[in-house]
């Protein structure tokens, strides 16, 4: 797994080799489910993961009469359809494959992608930092490959809404395919708009209230004013950014706006462990960097957050500093 670039418009390599075993057999889609989680017997039209003895994962769309071809012979889909997941199937050449439905975190790192995706460790933090709740009205941009969209849709559930904006129509089409593949069809709670976030918001006849905003784009600071007009008091705005310069610009822009609480910036490091007999140690292949989260909460109209008690570090805003500059707010002062 690797981090996205500043604009995220790259295709990352996935650590596990994932082969998409495309089938040419026409097959019905199983009924959509709001959570994207299917239980019970495996059905034609479902995507499963076959893991070989070397740990390589192969994504397979089950089809009646279909075959997953490997260099060690084929695996018949019919040997899986109608049975439970968590079974081992053997290819004609004798290789054993573990068959499981992918969890959401596996789906998002193995699904086809145009833009770099938000990885599960960051998606989990985003849901918690934003406190995304069932019924929440969420705005997201850019949709990219739709990885975060899947997590947001699951968190808001059928009573909430996720409005996703993506300015590249090829990425939007990929996001749509991925979301439809995970949930079985596009959830009713989802609205995907192709276009620039701010332009699209400003083109709306009436600003629609929003509870939570998640931005994963090159220049989130450009969207702060338009989103502040729509965020409810107490609502959360969060930006996921890849570089420290983006982090700094986002933090300072939120401060200068004045209608947000003091921004918080974090990053999450996840270290997997190898545990085998006496060899218990961190794994060697830790992902060093993905991105930073910057979040702040919307104040009620007319209020600014109380002035910070701590003075900035000496030189923080010295003559070399060229970014947005907050005027020292008078405590309790009102802002439109
Ligand atoms: C890194 S990708 C997003 C990936 C996505 N979060 C996911 O998990 O799959 C960033 C996307 O933001 C889009 N983007 C950048 N600026 C935008 C804007 N102002 N309005 C809408 N989309 C924008 C880019 O086209 C790109 O697809």
Automatic annotation (TrEMBL):
The cross-references to Pfam families, in alphabetical order and at most eight, read: GCD14, TrmI-like_N
Record flagged with keyword tRNA processing: yes
InterPro entries under this entry?
SAM-dependent_MTases_sf (IPR029063), TRM61_C (IPR049470), tRNA_MeTrfase_Gcd14 (IPR014816)
What CDD domains does UniProt report for this protein, alphabetically?
A: AdoMet_MTases
Does the record's keyword annotation contain Transferase? yes
Q: Give the highest taxon in the source lineage.
A: Bacteria
Which segments carry the region annotation Disordered?
A: 303-336
- A single Gene Ontology molecular function, please? tRNA (adenine(58)-N1)-methyltransferase activity
Keywords recorded for this protein, A-Z: Methyltransferase, S-adenosyl-L-methionine, Transferase, tRNA processing
Q: Where in this chain does the record put each tRNA (adenine(58)-N(1))-methyltransferase catalytic subunit TRM61 C-terminal domain?
A: 106-275
List the GO terms this entry assigns under cellular component, sorted alphabetically: tRNA (m1A) methyltransferase complex
**GO biological process terms, semicolon-separated:** tRNA methylation
* Listed SUPFAM superfamilies: S-adenosyl-L-methionine-dependent methyltransferases
Which PANTHER family does the record cross-reference, listed alphabetically? TRNA (ADENINE(58)-N(1))-METHYLTRANSFERASE, TRNA (ADENINE(58)-N(1))-METHYLTRANSFERASE, MITOCHONDRIAL
Q: What is this protein called?
A: tRNA (Adenine57-N1/adenine58-N1)-methyltransferase
* The organism of origin for this protein: Microlunatus sagamiharensis
């Amino acid at each position: 797994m690797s981090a996205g670039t500043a604009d995220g418009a790259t295709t990352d390599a996935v650590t596990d080799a994932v082969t998409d075993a495309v089938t040419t057999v026409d097959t019905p889609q199983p009924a959509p489910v709001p959570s994207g989680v299917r239980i019970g017997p495996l059905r034609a039209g479902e995507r499963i993961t076959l893991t070989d003895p070397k740990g390589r994962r192969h994504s397979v769309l089950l089809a009646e009469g279909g075959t997953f071809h490997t260099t060690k012979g084929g695996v018949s889909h019919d040997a899986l359809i109608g049975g439970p997941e968590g079974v081992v199937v053997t290819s004609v050449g004798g290789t054993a494959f573990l068959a499981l439905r992918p969890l959401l975190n596996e789906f998002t790192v193995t699904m086809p992608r145009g833009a770099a995706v938000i990885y599960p460790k960051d998606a989990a933090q985003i849901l918690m930092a934003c406190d995304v709740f069932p019924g929440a009205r969420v705005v997201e941009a850019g949709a990219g490959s739709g990885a975060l969209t899947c997590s947001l849709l699951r968190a808001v559930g059928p009573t909430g809404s996720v409005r996703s904006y993506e300015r590249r129509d090829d990425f939007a089409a990929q996001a749509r395919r991925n979301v439809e593949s995970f949930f079985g069809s596009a959830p009713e709670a989802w609205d995907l708009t192709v276009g620039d976030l701010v332009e699209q918001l400003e083109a709306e006849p009436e600003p629609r209230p929003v509870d939570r905003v998640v931005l994963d784009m090159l220049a989130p600071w450009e969207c702060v004013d338009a989103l502040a007009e729509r965020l409810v008091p107490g609502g959360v705005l969060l930006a996921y950014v890849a570089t420290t310069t983006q982090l700094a610009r986002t933090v300072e822009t939120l401060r200068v706006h004045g209608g947000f609480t003091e921004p918080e910036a974090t990053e999450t490091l996840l270290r997997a462990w190898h545990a085998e007999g006496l060899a218990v140690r961190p794994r060697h292949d830790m992902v060093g960097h993905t991105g930073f989260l910057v979040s702040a909460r919307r104040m009620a109209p007319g209020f600014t957050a109380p002035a910070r008690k701590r003075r900035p570090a000496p030189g923080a805003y010295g003559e070399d500093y060229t970014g947005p500059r907050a005027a020292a707010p008078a405590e309790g002062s009102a802002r439109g």
